[in-house]
Design goal:
It comes from Bradyrhizobium australiense. The protein is of the alpha/beta class. 23% of the residues lie in helices and 18% in strands.
Length: 532
């Protein structure tokens, strides 16, 4: 048997890395287990000319396509939006676009402001110091002072507007709509040992330059130097409990496939909004027959994805294509509720610079705007390097029928039941997407775009996995309390996106990490009476 540890963290991605780094100063024995391994930037797709081809194979964002040994299959047949993630040290921060908004203050008060969903048990102001600390650790580039976004203080200047930015900005100015250079975690200057962006290639699936912040190169080196232990290629099967109903440790499979037990005084789950409910639901016992921490019956329920409505077209002027971070501007013009639009809550807009040549060819052929035959090359030259995109990232309200359960048949390579996704897009979200497409078309037409195409929703758009172990003060209506501790198991904590009460209309990574730092801070403040 392994020696007991003080704190065991499951998952080495965005939230697991942040909580490990923050708790390291306590000098407790902290161990993190991750089912993947350390990444090798020398093997990233952007080191070769075939980087786009790899995006369709072993560097796909979908674990079902990628199928690496560290991945687990996901049955998402009953969902129009497919789950995408990455398993390894750094988690999905290895693959993300580095787009870096925060949830807005209004997102924490949806019930009070708009009569929908529930209010969070914490507010935006509570998280501000942790947002700021996380921005410093991850290394954010941006322009402070956006009038429609929370105030930020990025340590680096914003991404250059490039070729695409002015085209979008001028169109937005003609319409009289808000736009602003977006915060990103792509370095615009040498920062904390990371080299600046040199536009090596598209920021997904991974950045060989190291300019894009992923937690394997930001939080983890510092956490390990501070004494945190990280074991890779260790897949956790279940969390065990003792006769008092406390978490006693985990059963996992090591890199050789050998079953191990790791005892721990405290267990922290950081496995994302699909992996966390999967683990809890698989951790059944006589005391917890419906899964661990599930007295509310809400583990796995209220899954929120963010449906994306995408529209794009082609302009005569050259655009950035794949030669820059993909999202350079955002708009919050339609972020908050305006009932005259026909729906409640709202969406953010992300402007996309373009696409690489292979993606352009494949997508345009599928859309029927790139012909075969004698006209193929002429049309391709018209399309490639001339694309402008608009994506509406729509707030997904929590609904219990959108859920993660254990698949009765599908299993991973260790025989652990795979997650099953049952998800439908609400009428409110459909109306929101239609509104976003209409506004996107206006923007593109003002910019002079033609050959306009849509994807609504983006089918491989399940990047944001939220809400399946929600936070709240009432144990009957939530899984964890206002500082991430399980209502049912006093030494069990959750720090990933599954604790979200609402989803907002922005990418969640910066908020996920701020919450992880906040939970760690609460644990340190309450250390003496953690289990009371």
């Amino acid at each position: 048997m392994n020696d007991p540890v003080d704190v065991l963290i499951i998952g080495a991605g965005a939230s697991g890395a942040a909580v490990a780094w923050s708790l390291a100063e306590t000098k407790m024995h902290i161990l993190c287990l991750d089912q993947g391994g350390w990444m090798k930037p020398s093997e990233y797709p952007s080191t070769g000319r075939d980087w786009e081809a790899k995006f369709y194979g072993d560097w796909s964002t979908s674990p079902n396509v990628r199928g690496r040994p560290e991945d687990y299959p996901i049955n998402d047949d009953n969902s129009p939006i497919k789950v995408v993630n990455f398993n390894g040290v750094g988690g999905s921060t290895v693959m993300y676009t580095a787009h870096w908004p925060r949830l807005h203050p209004s997102d924490f008060k949806a019930k009070t402001l708009d009569g929908v969903a529930d209010d969070w048990p914490i507010d935006y102001d509570t998280l501000v110091p942790f947002f700021e600390e996380n921005d410093r650790m991850m290394g954010v580039s941006g322009l402070s002072g956006d009038p429609l976004s929370p105030l930020t203080h990025p340590p680096m200047p914003p991404q250059p507007l490039g070729l695409s930015g002015p085209l979008i900005g001028k169109a937005m100015n003609k319409l009289g709509w808000h736009w602003w250079p977006s915060d990103t975690t792509v370095a615009t200057m040498d920062y904390e040992g990371r080299a600046r962006c040199i536009n090596l290639g598209h920021c997904t699936p991974a950045c060989a330059q190291g300019a894009k912040a992923s937690t394997d190169i930001t939080y983890w080196p510092q956490a390990i130097r501070a004494g945190v232990e990280l074991k890779t290629n260790c897949r956790v099967r279940e969390i065990l409990t003792d006769e008092h109903g406390m978490a006693s440790g985990v059963v996992y499979y090591d890199k050789d496939g050998v079953e191990q037990f790791q005892p721990a005084e405290v267990v922290i789950i950081a496995c994302n909004g699909v992996g966390t409910p999967r683990l809890l639901l698989n951790s059944v016992s006589g005391r917890f027959p419906n899964g661990l921490a599930n007295s509310s019956g809400l583990v796995g329920k209220n899954l929120m994805f963010h449906p994306y409505a995408q529209i794009y077209g082609y302009v005569k002027e050259p655009t950035d294509s794949n030669r820059a971070p993909p999202t350079c501007l955002w708009s919050k013009e339609f972020y908050d509720t305006d009932l005259s639009r026909g729906f409640v809550r709202g969406y953010g807009i992300q402007f996309v610079r373009g696409a690489g040549p292979v993606f352009e060819a494949v997508a345009s052929e599928q859309k029927g705007i790139l012909p075969w035959g004698a006209d193929h090359h002429r049309v391709f030259r018209k399309l490639h390097g001339h694309r402008l995109g608009v994506s509406a990232i729509c707030e997904d309200l929590p609904e219990e029928h959108n859920r993660v359960t254990l698949d009765p048949v599908l299993k991973d390579s260790h025989g652990i039941p795979a997650p099953r996704i049952d998800y439908t897009i609400s009428e409110n979200s459909w109306k929101m997407m239609e509104h976003g497409l209409a506004r996107g078309r206006e923007i593109l037409e003002v910019a002079g775009a033609t050959d306009i195409c849509t994807n609504s929703p983006i089918p491989w758009g399940g990047w944001h996995l939220l809400g399946t172990a929600r936070m709240g003060t009432d144990p009957a209506c939530s899984v964890v309390n206002e500082w991430g501790r399980s209502h049912d198991v006093k030494n069990l904590f959750i720090v990933d996106g599954s604790v979200f009460v609402t989803s907002g209309g922005v990418n969640p990574t910066s908020t996920i990490q701020a919450i992880a730092l906040y939970v760690a801070d609460q644990m340190k403040q309450r250390l003496a009476n953690l289990f009371d």
